[in-house]
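Hey team,

Filing this mostly as a record. A colleague (T.K.) asked me to run one chain through the structure pipeline before their review meeting, and I want the input and output archived in the tracker in case anyone asks later how it was produced. No errors, nothing strange. Just documentation.

Input sequence:
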Amino acid sequence: MASYGNPYGSRPFSMFPPVIKWLLGINVVIFIIGLLPAGIQDGFQLAVDDYFTSYGALWPLNHPAFGAWQYFTYMFLHGGVMHLFFNMLILWMFGMELEQAWGSRRFLLYYLLCGLGAGILHSVVTLAMGTGAPTVGASGAIMGVMIAFGMMFPDRIIMVYFFFPMRAKYAVFMFAGLDLVLGITNSSDGIAHFAHLGGALIGLLLLKTSGIYLRGGLFQLADRGRPASSAPFRTPAERTAPTPSRGNVIEANFREAPRQNPTPPPSHNHDQQGIDAILDKISRHGYQNLTPEEKAALLEASKRMQRG
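Output structure:
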């Protein structure tokens, strides 16, 4: 796994893009709430997590406790401190650059769809095999994030298990292969391997059908309601494409004008060219090699997208 420094200066929590920040916070808060006591039943002390598991974990399809909403809720529950810690660590390490490159709306939609696909495949397989227990964890969605990272930054060197350097494109598919083997051999390690595979397969499908920048299919919904100035970053192939005419609509970027020798504000195309250059640099050299000014520009572009 790769290691990252703080790209945004002296405010530690500001280093997280918006969706990553919210996902980390929600998962941690739910886990902490789950530790609280919730009364005594049949002589046993119950915790809030017992109720979370009863209603929010993903139960087998043929179990009376199963509910369709569990395909969403299960990915926000975790089975222990280490389960939570490693899932959130991997989400941050692999998801941060994806959210910066795709935009927050696309990243969130991709994450949730991978988690949904992971849950559905796990349900179908466990029903067919006649096995199953309540399933919790964001691992399926995070496996989709890892697959996307491996496809978007294939030659990035990451440290597998913190010690073994490997190119991202090999590492993420190695993990998927291990899940396949362990799932087929019916490993009794308590890990939902087919949920991991479901997240990986949905991730691959989305990336193949919508493009690596997630510009097609369902992801077109991410642009609805946005002004053009807050649209996602363009792909390299689109940078030289002519801009379609929009009639009498005039775009403007508002900035504080300098008090002396005022100059016209930079155009949106100029801003976009700078962001394109930064994204190219990330693809070639990695996020950690950006200058502080480039990181600040990328963060500001992400904030503009959120305001849109």
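Quick notes for T.K.: Residues 1-13, 227-268 have pLDDT under 50 and may be disordered. DSSP finds ten helices and four strands in the chain.
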